[in-house]
Amino acid sequence: MALLKYWPKTHSPKEVMFLNELEAILDVIEPSEFVKTMEPLFQQLAKCVSSPHFQVADLISDNAAKILPIMFPSLYRNSKTHCNKIIHGLIYNALKVFMETNQKLFDDCTQQFKAEELKEKLKMKVQEEAWVKIENLAKASLCPCFPLCLGQFFSSYVRVCISLLCLTSPSSVRPPPALL
Question: At residue 19, does pLDDT exceed 50?
Fold first, then answer.
């Protein structure tokens, strides 16, 4: 992120404007791009949080509700898997700053991340089981009704996926009864 090179370190009102622009950029940045820039970005954000200028520190604190949910999954994953110890330290410091800024928001993001991970694992398990069934059906393809069996299998697979979606989605989002 070339913008970090031009960060107004000595002029607090410009720093506040810069943080506003950074917020807009973080709303649209791709996760892969974010990973490339997170080390210098969080070094700068850590400085902003401890800024003597109240508006800069307040701006970071006030926008933690927007910033943390966007960045938490990448930070958490990289805190567990990244091979570079320096990046581990930077990620730890960034997570610590967010945790100290708003403990409840941090806990909510942690729970949401773990729920998403569980949902993804369940989805993968259903897919793996589906492929095992397809392989077994293919092995038993000597059966003259193989296409019919395969069609029945896929309709039950779709029902299972929709059921999982209903369990993890808000109650207001329900599929049509014909799909259940």
Answer: yes
Single residue among 54, 73, 101 that ends a domain in this structure? 101
Q: How many domains does the chain have?
A: 2
Instruction: Cite the DSSP H helix spans in 5-142.
Output: 12-28, 31-49, 54-62, 64-81, 85-101, 103-139
* Residues 90, 17: Cα–Cα separation, whole Å: 24
Percent of the chain with pLDDT over 70: 60
Characterize 78-108 residue by residue with b for buried, 16 or more Cβ atoms within 10 angstroms of its Cβ, and e for exposed: bbeeeeeeebeebbeebbebbeebbeebbee
Domain range for 132: 118-179
Residue 59: other Cβ atoms inside 10 A: 22
User: Among 69, 101, 133, where does a domain finish?
Assistant: 101
**Please, are residues 7 and 44 in contact by the beta-carbon 8 Å criterion?**
yes
Q: Which amino acid is at 77?
A: R
Following CA atoms 156, 159, 161, 162 in sequence, which dihedral angle do they give, to the nearest 10 degrees? 170
Residues 143 and 80 in one domain: no
Structure tokens at 171: 């109650």
Separation between Cα atoms, residue 72 and residue 151, nearest integer Å: 41
Q: What integer pLDDT is reported at residue 179 of this predicted model?
A: 46
